[in-house]
Amino acid sequence: RATSEAEPLRAYAPSMGQIFLRRFQLVTQFRSALETGQVSIHYQPKVALPSRQVVGAEALVRWKHPEFGRVDPDEFVPAVEATGLVDVLTDFVMDKALDRVRRWIDRGLRMSIAVNLSVRTLADEEFPDRVAAALLKHAVPPELLTFELTESGVMADPERALPVLRRLHTMGVVLAVDDFGTGYSSLAYLRQLPVDEVKIDKSFVLGMGTDLGDMAVVRSIVELGHSLSLTVVAEGVEDDAARDQLVSMGCDVAQGYLISRPLSEERFEAWLRARTVQ
Ligand code: C2E
Ligand code: CA
Ligand code: CA
Ligand code: CA
């Protein structure tokens, strides 16, 4: 064995190898993680401005891994996305989310649920059929389901994404552009997309208190959105000052730690009960 030659490599190999191995494990273990209950959905409320009425929630996926502990969606979603498994994730989240909406309807609550879509899903021409089947299964009207999509997701392959989006829109499902303001061609392309809602990226909302530039971006997105008759949602609302600014700008909906962090199903229901006038 040529130990002396292998030695320099070993200084770098373990960490690279560990990153690769972890990613590999996440991808290969994902399906069984779904089946064994390691993956759950957290719910983060959205409230109308200025009334503070709860209008719905965003479904955010969580993975409690037996070895790694809590794994962030920012890590495992892209890994899963790179495989064919993202459909399995989307269908899982959609099924859980629509089951929740059904329970709300049964209690007389009219609240919508937002599900994040990845690039891959937007290129899948059979996806609208699966959405229709899921809505039917849970007997949920399409307008109570929102899909959040990123600009880069649509622009990755607009030829394939647009027909899928048009079909979803025709079905009556609400479409929202997520992380708005972070992309390149925002203004020009927004007019051409069949969308109902824009979500101002939290980086601008978080920066509003200290950065006049961020404030100007938020204000202009609200104005642009309204000029296109879109609902404008702000994410990353962490304090009263941001909320008050958004109210004065006429922003329609707020989401963020000020209202609530994303909560487990049980804790979300408790939060809701505490807020809802009986
Ligand atoms: P996103 O769609 O932009 O989701 C918003 C993120 O901001 C969430 O992070 C949420 O917990 C966080 N957030 C909410 N309010 C505040 C606030 O007031 N301040 C700050 N600093 N952060 C706030 P999370 O849950 O870690 O999700 C990260 C990303 O992972 C999401 O970004 C989304 O792109 C992706 N993701 C989550 N769930 C799913 C899913 O089911 N499917 C897909 N495809 N992607 C998902
Ligand atoms: Ca989102
Ligand atoms: Ca976002
Ligand atoms: Ca994001």
Automatic annotation (TrEMBL):
Q: What is this protein called?
A: Diguanylate cyclase/phosphodiesterase
Superkingdom per UniProt = Bacteria
Give the shown range, full length included.
Answer: 575 to 852 of 866
Domain (EAL): give its ranges: 23-276
Species of origin: Saccharothrix variisporea
